[in-house]
């Protein structure tokens, strides 16, 4: 269960546990919690384990400048560290950092690696079973790997020809494309998930984790078919949040390992992985003339500037520029 938050004490004494309590009270995504905690811990260690209450803007400046100068961190890396520390001081310690004067990173922002359509198809062809369908959804619907792994049966809306992404980054909901070519495979996967759920119920199990305390509000919902995971794990396990034995979804690492092997088998020599399918989804839509606002909505980007990065990927190929060697 690589996406399950570890339980916290009712009255946490450790500082980082107190930080996590505040993050969870604000319904922050677990990935964000992990990332912010990593940077806060790094900041504390960098300053030889001084408590953040005894530090202020000057120590934050020193740390962020260190990332830019000594670590040669990319702009986005430095921004993430900054966001984590601003959250620490503003939300946890109740203090405004004020004006910061750190050295900004000079390492330029890179454009994302993308697959051509032929490359994406060749990678997917190397995959089988769950990994094949999950990769097809990442490429065909623009899902992140964890969004694919977390899909529930009710998220596949055949009637409206869309996929509802409910537990995405930033806890935002969105709707995206449901590829018609995946209808048959998805129906078969749903049949498999429901058959496995039926057997679990017969064996005295069958409950699935429900977010946001829905299990208390709707006691019977945890066993309803609609809430079951589309990609259930092959084994039952103990949920550390409740000590209940139940079936979780497959882990994102399982898909990532399969995709990494498939990329190698397809002889594609790019710095690529699962997220490359998502980048390729957006790029190919843009290349096909899809309005960038629609792409932003399907990708779940809060800021249009994030989506506009794909214009740099498409730009050169689509301007009719021909290399002299090809003339």
Describe this structure in words.
The protein is mainly α and 327 residues long. It has two domains: 15-92, DNA polymerase, domain 1, CATH 1.10.150.130; 117-307, hpI Integrase, Chain A (Orthogonal Bundle). Helices cover 49% and strands 7% of the residues. The chain has 13 helices and five strands. It has a three-stranded antiparallel sheet with strand order 1-2-3. A two-stranded antiparallel ribbon has the order 4-5. Strand 1 (156-157) and strand 2 (162-165) form a beta hairpin. Helix 5 (117-125) packs across helix 10 (252-265). It is globular, with a radius of gyration of 22 Å. The relative contact order is 0.11. The mean pLDDT is 91.
CATH fold naming of the largest domain: hpI Integrase, Chain A
Determine the strand fraction and express it as a percent band. 5-15%
Q: Could you name the CATH class of the largest domain?
A: Mainly Alpha
Class by alpha and beta content:
mainly alpha
Helix-residue proportion: 40-55%
The low-confidence runs, each spanning 5 or more residues with pLDDT under 50, are none
The topology string of helices and strands comes to HHHHHHHEEEHHEEHHHH
Count of individual helical segments: 13
Number of strands: 5
The fourth-level CATH homologous superfamily of the largest domain is: Intergrase catalytic core
Mean of all residue-level pLDDT scores:
91
Shape: globular
Q: What's the end-to-end separation, in Å?
A: 54 Å
Give a quick account of the main beta sheet: strands, pairing sense, barrel closure.
Answer: 3 strands, antiparallel
Count of spatially separate domains: 2
| Second rung of CATH, namely the architecture of the largest domain | Orthogonal Bundle
Roughly how many Å is the radius of gyration?
22 Å
């Amino acid at each position: 269960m690589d996406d399950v938050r570890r339980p916290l004490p009712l009255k946490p004494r450790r500082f980082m546990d107190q930080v996590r309590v505040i993050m969870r009270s604000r319904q922050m995504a677990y990935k964000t919690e992990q990332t912010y905690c990593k940077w806060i811990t790094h900041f504390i260690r960098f300053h030889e384990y001084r408590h953040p209450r005894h530090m202020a803007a000057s120590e934050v400046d020193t740390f962020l400048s260190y990332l830019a100068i000594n670590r040669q961190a990319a702009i986005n890396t430095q921004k993430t560290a900054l966001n984590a520390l601003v959250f620490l001081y503003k939300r946890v310690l109740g203090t405004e950092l004020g004006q910061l004067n750190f050295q900004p990173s000079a390492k330029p922002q890179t454009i994302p690696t993308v697959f051509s359509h032929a490359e994406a198809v060749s990678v997917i062809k190397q995959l089988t079973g769950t990994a094949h369908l999950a990769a097809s959804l990442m490429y065909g619907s623009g899902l992140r790997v964890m969004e694919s792994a977390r899909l529930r049966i009710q998220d596949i809306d055949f009637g409206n020809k869309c996929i509802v992404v409910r537990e995405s980054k930033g806890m935002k909901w969105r709707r995206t494309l449901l590829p018609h070519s995946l209808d048959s495979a998805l129906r078969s996967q749903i049949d498999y998930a429901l058959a496995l759920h039926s057997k679990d119920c017969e064996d005295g199990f069958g409950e699935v984790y429900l977010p946001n305390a829905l299990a208390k509000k709707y006691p019977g919902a945890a066993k309803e078919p609609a809430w079951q995971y589309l990609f259930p794990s092959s084994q039952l396990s103990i949920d550390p949040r409740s000590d209940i034995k139940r079936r979780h979804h497959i882990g994102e690492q399982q898909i990532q390992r399969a995709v990494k092997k498939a990329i190698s088998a397809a002889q594609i020599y790019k710095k690529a992985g699962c997220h490359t399918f998502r980048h390729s989804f957006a790029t190919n839509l843009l290349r096909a003339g899809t309005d960038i606002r629609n792409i932003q909505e399907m990708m779940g980007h809060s800021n249009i500037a994030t989506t506009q990065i794909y214009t740099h990927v498409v730009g050169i190929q689509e301007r009719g520029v021909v290399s002299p060697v090809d003339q």
